């Protein structure tokens, strides 16, 4: 009877009441489906404000355009960076279940502060203080949710079976679909409310969305299986690195005074060293284990875990450039569209609605990939995954190169039309710029098709790659690297624009991306530069991806 009970329990997992999780009852697609619904509401609450926040700061709070842009960039970057904190706490001390609930409460409080602040319509210094308190409470809450919700859903599947692994891949693809559903409502319905009914309505809808997400999440409580926290993964990493450094330093200092007494003893030591690792620097922590102080003695499993984390870092670094492209295009593409004909029949589409195109395309592509492309790939390659995680990420990086090339070509066409209009008009460039150019803004939507595809392949691939490859003790933290890459992409885009303007503005030349008239920008050159950098980044990615050895089943 005891043996039967042991076999029916998920080892290392508990339910929400801290009792052993049971096979056949806890976990599975039903439990993960609650996570997908919650993500729709959570992303709606976050993006409803983030997508239109720059306009609110500049028109209602008295920020300058550059000040508003910097404030939004800092807010978005901080929110995504704080996903690391959420992931760390989920791995080390609490479960993903509890981190989500606390983070949702913090985000709700921040949105409530923003709603009250927007209702007051004040631009006094105290109002800005309240604004920043609300924004960064939201950022803290969003970070905790982003760092806990994806791994919480992924932990519901049994990775020891092919069916469980396929369902987990299915979950990550539909997690991106849920992100897009929330984003679609945010950039249409909520933005319309903010523009036409008032900003307090928009903040109020966001507050209600995150509030509703809590009972939806709790409704799945009896089905969840929760990974038991196993202590700080960062402590383990520092311990292994410190032990390796200490052992290496000690070995070098003693090399001049310690010699092998016989050739056989030397050979024995060499053989022992080769048996304890693959010859990397970290293996010194194992070879010299007996001579290390007690607190620095590491197990073979700990050294192996740190090696895995270090192996994934070049892959992580290679994805930052893609997110830089996404951040950059979301800024300049809207400005380009504002100079073009934005009418669809009798309907005039606001340029700020451009993000609808990648969102809708992603919503179409995600189920198509899951139900058509992936089964076809499995049948063709006769493998379990059909497409490996690194192949998915690489596909996204290639599509980002194509997207930047398309963006450059579209900008060349737009400027050619602007030049023709200027030549045919007796007015100067500035006056012709004030009226829409005779070219449809749907040309801009073309590059979003490639960007939406790149985002789906890369973000879903990154989350699944980091989750499956990371040691079980640091999966939430590793999955958070996907969001950290997005944050670093936002920051890199700002640095890149400043660097380009500085270099091109030398010797009293006009910087490429400076001025009030977009037709005088050399935006096409900047896009070609991004295309080249993205191509170089892909080669860098290819170098590491071809040498990467999976620890998980990627047959």
UniProtKB/TrEMBL annotation:
The chain crosses the membrane at residues 27-48, 68-90, 97-117, 129-149, 170-193, 199-220, 313-332, 352-372, 393-410, 441-467, 488-506, 526-544. GO terms for molecular function: transmembrane transporter activity. It holds the Pfam family PTR2. CDD domains: MFS_NPF4. Its main location: membrane. It is found in: Membrane. Keywords: Membrane, Transmembrane, Transmembrane helix. It comes from the Eukaryota. It is a multi-pass membrane protein. Belongs to the major facilitator superfamily. Proton-dependent oligopeptide transporter (POT/PTR) (TC 2.A.17) family. This is Major facilitator superfamily (MFS) profile domain-containing protein. It comes from Brassica campestris.
